[in-house]
Amino acid sequence: MTSAPAVEPFDAVDVIACKRDGGRLSRDRIDWVVDAYTRGVVAEEQMSALAMAIYLRGMEPQEIADWTRAMIDSGERMDFSALDRPTADKHSTGGVGDKITLPLAPLVAVFGVSVPQLSGRGLGHTGGTLDKLESIPGWRAELSNDQIMEMLGERGPGAVICAAGAGLAPADRRLYALRDTTATVSCIPLIASSIMSKKIAEGTGALVLDVKVGSGAFMKELDQARELARTMVGLGVQAGVVTRALLTDMSVPLGLTVGNALEVRESLEVLAGGGPDDVVELTVALGQEMLAAAGRPTGRDELRAALGDGRAMDVWRAMVSRQGGDPDAALPRAAHTEVLTAPSDGVLTGLDALAVGVAAWRLGAGRARKEDAVQAGAGIELHAKPGEAVRAGAPLATLHTDTPERFERALQVLREGVVVSPALSQEAEAAQALRGRGVIIERIADEPA
Ligand code: URA
């Protein structure tokens, strides 16, 4: 943030009117409006109007780049150049059951690349990485910059998952909260600049983006997801960060668990060499991308071996202990469970990610407002995935919560998201054909097309 000028060089109303009328915002105007908003000179209602104008009118690539840089300049930038190893980070645009960061960060560190994974808490139907880790008894998310450096350096585990400090892109922190209350979140220029300002300020040398597509994601359509991925890859490359993206499926939940402690448990299975195929596949694919982007290309089999032989688990245990957690402590379990069963014989043809995410949220796994607490044990365990044959009365999902009055509303939405079709139907054949298709849809790299 710059010091306040004696006289403000621009007027917020002019800036809003320019974008409202479909104009292009100059770099000077963008620098000023983002800085003046951070200083409190541009009022919340003015920034709301500007965000809506951007939402409706869009931004050109140069405007998005200038907006991103202005948000980076609103705060501090971390610098990992003193480390003796390259750094790589991963960012997911958010999905249901997305626990990949937990096995991925220690796995990448095994191969000599440090992983500064500065994360957030969840809001709405997608979970937050910190909420998941906070279900481990004793584990704490807040670390100083010196502690982060210690975790990443030679004498640390080489990976850290912790809260992003308030000093990183503070303009985005305020703007994101404002967008949440003004229906201006789902806008590619604003999402891309929000995510990339934090990631570039974080100081990673390489970045891999997991851009989710499908009902449980921000981006429901492939075209939108591709545009978001390309925009973010472009911003990263322009800022000197080696950036790549995978477009991945979020039409069904990832893995078999949704909810904080439940997802930690599944991550431990992956770190012990097991776990659901889709979680392992995505962990290994993102690991490969991160290592290659950091200049340490590593084969799929080598990554799988580090999950199977305990090396990734050793890093995980060190990471958890260094942040006050007990890696051997029992994870919390919810006090009550309820089982959703298959209504008929057939094939599970639909398991909608959004429905499962909202159901887990209603059980207490997520929060509606930033200030809300989450239940560590709440969530959903899935017993079948699309394409599998099921018998009438067989369990499809177990719901977990400490507050059983939540079951009814969670079951309501979950039932709507689950479809069992007769085994001989076209839907069943299509679901069975898609089974095992894999989660990775497309790769977008920073190399010229
Ligand atoms: N995540 C962010 O950090 N910002 C957005 O705008 C959307 C998702």
TrEMBL record:
<dbReference type="InterPro" id="IPR013102">
    <property type="entry name" value="PYNP_C"/>
</dbReference>
<comment type="subunit">
    <text>Homodimer.</text>
</comment>
<protein>
    <submittedName>
        <fullName>Thymidine phosphorylase</fullName>
        <ecNumber>2.4.2.4</ecNumber>
    </submittedName>
</protein>
<comment type="similarity">
    <text>Belongs to the thymidine/pyrimidine-nucleoside phosphorylase family.</text>
</comment>
<dbReference type="InterPro" id="IPR035902">
    <property type="entry name" value="Nuc_phospho_transferase"/>
</dbReference>
<dbReference type="GO" id="GO:0005829">
    <property type="term" value="C:cytosol"/>
</dbReference>
<dbReference type="InterPro" id="IPR000312">
    <property type="entry name" value="Glycosyl_Trfase_fam3"/>
</dbReference>
<dbReference type="GO" id="GO:0006206">
    <property type="term" value="P:pyrimidine nucleobase metabolic process"/>
</dbReference>
<keyword id="KW-0328">Glycosyltransferase</keyword>
<dbReference type="GO" id="GO:0004645">
    <property type="term" value="F:1,4-alpha-oligoglucan phosphorylase activity"/>
</dbReference>
<dbReference type="InterPro" id="IPR018090">
    <property type="entry name" value="Pyrmidine_PPas_bac/euk"/>
</dbReference>
<dbReference type="GO" id="GO:0006213">
    <property type="term" value="P:pyrimidine nucleoside metabolic process"/>
</dbReference>
<dbReference type="InterPro" id="IPR017459">
    <property type="entry name" value="Glycosyl_Trfase_fam3_N_dom"/>
</dbReference>
<dbReference type="InterPro" id="IPR036320">
    <property type="entry name" value="Glycosyl_Trfase_fam3_N_dom_sf"/>
</dbReference>
<dbReference type="Pfam" id="PF07831">
    <property type="entry name" value="PYNP_C"/>
</dbReference>
<dbReference type="InterPro" id="IPR000053">
    <property type="entry name" value="Thymidine/pyrmidine_PPase"/>
</dbReference>
<feature type="domain" description="Pyrimidine nucleoside phosphorylase C-terminal">
    <location>
        <begin position="347"/>
        <end position="421"/>
    </location>
</feature>
<keyword id="KW-0808">Transferase</keyword>
<dbReference type="InterPro" id="IPR017872">
    <property type="entry name" value="Pyrmidine_PPase_CS"/>
</dbReference>
<dbReference type="GO" id="GO:0009032">
    <property type="term" value="F:thymidine phosphorylase activity"/>
</dbReference>
<dbReference type="Pfam" id="PF02885">
    <property type="entry name" value="Glycos_trans_3N"/>
</dbReference>
<dbReference type="InterPro" id="IPR036566">
    <property type="entry name" value="PYNP-like_C_sf"/>
</dbReference>
<dbReference type="Pfam" id="PF00591">
    <property type="entry name" value="Glycos_transf_3"/>
</dbReference>
